[in-house]
Amino acid sequence: xxxxxxxxxxxxxxxxxxxxxxxxxxxxxxxxxxxxxxxxxxxxxxxxxxxxxxxxxxxxxxxxxxxxxxxxxxxxxxxxxxxxxxxxxxxxxxxxxxxxxxxxxxxxxxxxxxxxxxxxxxxxxxxxxxxxxxxxxxxxxxxxxxxxxxxxxxxxxxxxxxxxxxxxxxxxxxxxxxxxxxxxxxxxxxxxxxxxxxxxxxxxxxxxxxxxxxxxxxxxxxxxxxxxxxxxxxxxxxxxxxxxxxxxxxxxxxxxxxxxxxxxxxxxxxxxxxxxxxxxxxxxxxxxxxxxxxxxxxxxxxxxxxxxxxxxxxxx
Length: 316
Description:
By secondary structure, this protein is of the alpha/beta class. It has twelve helices and twelve strands.
């Protein structure tokens, strides 16, 4: 029986988007390695206990979020450093992404990633931007598979999503990318266009932020857990519109009409690569007409690349 460790970004996180990502990561690892023992280790707190599991692992995976950056000595989205990198290696990426648009890559980052990442297996990344960043520091074994949260969005699944609007909507905001002018406009549009408006708290600071922007008696607040958004998406005829990328992806997974407001490189790059239903945050002037138009979602998920990445483990 193989021992597999997977870095889990949902541990010690105030963002439920990481739970959505890890749900997909673990699902596909269980499918690939049904008779292996999978242990989830924190991606940020790499302690002596964490290192114990990593050293004993036959395979180490890291999936989903934007944990790579051009200056990993300064921006810490993964708790690795020159010291603990001596205790494990051969990490296999599974839809990982790059933090924001950044120039160049530091020598520290290049050295660290070359110590940590596998040279034997294909490294699966989330978008072309991340692929190009890794190739710029001489990683040849990189493949763009999109995020694992998109791997189940087949053409048949997406074609079942209705084209016309609903009378209810779930919206989200992002506490760490606050823009009161933009977000007040978004709320104003939604409360005028829809008969019933729900707000899902994906991040810890979202509730306090939305209270600063509007009278929350006009909207219904959903509890900050996955069950609350899953239940309403599964049981009601409802749209999703918001700035939270993985809130929107969860809506697509549940077969709902979705408009994601693109506020950073993650959603904008995934729109470029996969035709995700993202509009730029500066285009809210067109949101009313988009809500009321017939909207067909067509995605370009790289299923051949996903299949190729999975195939390298078929004999394990």
